[in-house]
């Protein structure tokens, strides 16, 4: 398996927004690798969150870590340049929300960002067939998008294995990211099924000790993949 290095990407959806800069500083100082930035439009998903201004504010605050923007919006193309300008390093979108998926991927890459597509729990993996060679990462949703704090959908494990097979067969360094219901007690089996990049919101934010929870997650991944 051509697994990439382990990345823990806390979803700021579960952070205290009144203290966002401090929350992000603390979680990065605790050993997290990326900032996962959930953008919801109350149209593609039934919730409304944050936009490029907040991404830019984190950069101005001094955040230098990768910012992994997950667009849960429809349509997607107009927001891509705005997030690239605001400091996003990674931008992913849902294929159902773009009329021209290949074009949206090319747009992300043309702006110097890493491009990902996001598969909902009911989106078939075959959607990757004609775009995998254009992607830097695939994000599998293990909950229905729109809210933090939901339970991991178990059938995602089989889907992870199927996507991992496709990535390995491609021979390319494509990351496999998982998002939704990731906790210290299931991250090991999720890693064993093929994920290397782990989004976790409610499991991290709100915990008394970010360093402890991030370390426990990384240790569980190591134990499951060594
Ligand atoms: O994109 C989403 C939800 O749509 C996720 O990023 C969640 O925010 C993850 O939260 P937890 O399931 O880890 O609490």
UniProtKB/TrEMBL annotation:
Chain sites annotated for binding a divalent metal cation: 36, 38, 70, 179
Cofactors named for this entry: Co(2+); Zn(2+); a divalent metal cation; Mn(2+)
Keywords (A to Z) from UniProt: Carbohydrate metabolism, Cobalt, Isomerase, Manganese, Metal-binding, Zinc
Active-site positions on this chain: 38, 179
GO MF terms held by the record: D-ribulose-phosphate 3-epimerase activity; metal ion binding
Top-level taxonomic group: Bacteria
Binding site for substrate: 11, 70, 146-149, 179-181, 201-202
Bound cofactor: record note: Binds 1 divalent metal cation per subunit.
Example of a GO cellular component annotation carried by this entry: cytoplasm
Gene Ontology biological-process annotations: pentose catabolic process; pentose-phosphate shunt
Catalytic activity of the protein: D-ribulose 5-phosphate = D-xylulose 5-phosphate
Pfam family, one: Ribul_P_3_epim
Pathway connected to this protein: Carbohydrate degradation
EC number(s) stated in the UniProt entry for this protein: 5.1.3.1
Similarity annotation: Belongs to the ribulose-phosphate 3-epimerase family.
NCBIfam families: PRK05581.1-4, rpe
Known function: Catalyzes the reversible epimerization of D-ribulose 5-phosphate to D-xylulose 5-phosphate.
Protein name: Ribulose-phosphate 3-epimerase
Species classification: Bacteria, Pseudomonadati, Pseudomonadota, Gammaproteobacteria, Lysobacterales
């Amino acid at each position: 398996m051509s697994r990439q290095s382990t990345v823990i990407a806390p979803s700021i959806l579960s952070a205290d927004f009144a203290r966002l800069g401090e929350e992000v500083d603390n979680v990065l100082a605790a050993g997290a690798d990326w900032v996962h930035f959930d953008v919801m439009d109350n149209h593609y998903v039934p919730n409304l969150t944050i936009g490029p201004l907040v991404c830019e504010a984190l950069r101005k605050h001094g955040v230098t870590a990768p910012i992994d923007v997950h667009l849960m919006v429809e349509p997607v193309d107009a927001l891509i340049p705005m997030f690239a300008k605001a400091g996003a390093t990674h931008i992913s979108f849902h294929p159902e929300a773009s009329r021209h998926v290949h074009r949206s991927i090319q747009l992300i890459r043309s702006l110097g960002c890493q491009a990902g597509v996001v598969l909902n729990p009911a989106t078939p993996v075959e959607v990757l067939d004609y775009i995998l060679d254009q992607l830097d990462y695939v994000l599998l949703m293990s909950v229905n998008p729109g809210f933090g704090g939901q339970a991991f959908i178990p059938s995602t494990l089989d889907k992870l294995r199927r996507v991992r097979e496709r990535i390995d067969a491609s021979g390319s360094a494509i990351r496999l990211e998982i998002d939704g219901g990731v906790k210290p007690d299931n991250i090991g089996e999720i890693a064993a099924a093929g994920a290397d990049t782990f989004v976790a919101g409610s499991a991290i934010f709100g915990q008394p000790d970010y360093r402890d929870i991030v370390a426990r997650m990384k240790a569980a991944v190591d134990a499951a993949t060594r």
